[in-house]
UniProtKB/TrEMBL annotation:
Gene Ontology MF terms: FMN binding; oxidoreductase activity
A Pfam family: FMN_red
NADPH-dependent FMN reductase-like domain: residues covered: 1-144
Coiled coil segments of this chain: none
Cellular-component GO terms for this entry: cytosol
Record-linked InterPro entries: Flavoprotein-like_sf, FMN_Rdtase-like_dom, NAD(P)H-dep_reductase
Originating organism: Pedobacter frigoris
Superkingdom of origin organism: Bacteria
The name this protein goes by in its record: NAD(P)H-dependent oxidoreductase
């Protein structure tokens, strides 16, 4: 299976990137593309820029990576109750090329934050919006209080949250066992 994985953040210390990396450890025998939004930096979207310059090559490249994937694993950072600016900008450019950005691909959607809500606002926004953009969300998982509930060497340390996470991983695996 070809997996495209990334975090909706450009922070070099992104906790969402750490959560994505952890999730990938449960898919060891797959073809994984783990991308960094920093490698897809685009100008701030505007219709004027779109008209004068066309679409950034990085938007085309990201859409091609999504098209080639069997599964998208994405963990969203929450900035002021919504998507990070970098992710939103990327989404805006890609959606101008193809309104179905996710191209009906299965998506394992995650979020985490240092606070107790675990990126719940951005998760709610994505659960509402992404299906309209062609995301077939298989399951989702939010990890609250990242620094208390996650250790890089051990993963999710809360037994209750680890159980919820592993259930989500099983849902993804079962999706592909049932629907090749």
């Amino acid at each position: 299976m070809k997996i495209l994985a990334f975090a909706g953040s450009t922070s070099r210390q992104s906790i969402n990137r750490k959560l994505v990396r952890h999730s990938l450890s449960f898919f060891p025998d797959n073809d994984i593309t783990f991308l960094d939004l920093n490698d897809f930096e685009m100008p701030v979207f505007s219709v004027d820029k779109e008209k004068s310059d066309g679409y950034p090559e990085y938007a085309h490249q990201l859409l091609s990576l999504i098209e080639a994937a069997d599964l998208v694993i994405l963990s969203l950072a929450e900035h002021n109750g919504s998507y990070s600016t970098a992710f939103k900008n990327t989404l805006d450019w890609c959606s101008r090329i193809n309104g179905k950005v996710f191209q009906d691909k299965p998506v394992f959607l995650m979020s985490t934050s240092p606070g107790g809500f675990g990126g719940g606002n951005v998760m709610a926004a994505a659960l509402s919006r992404f299906p309209k953009m062609g995301a077939n969300i298989i399951t989702h998982f939010s990890l609250p209080s990242f620094h208390q509930n996650f250790q890089e060497e051990n993963g999710i340390v809360s037994e209750e949250l680890s159980t919820l996470f592993l259930t989500a991983i099983d849902e993804v695996k079962n999706h592909f066992a049932t629907y090749p």
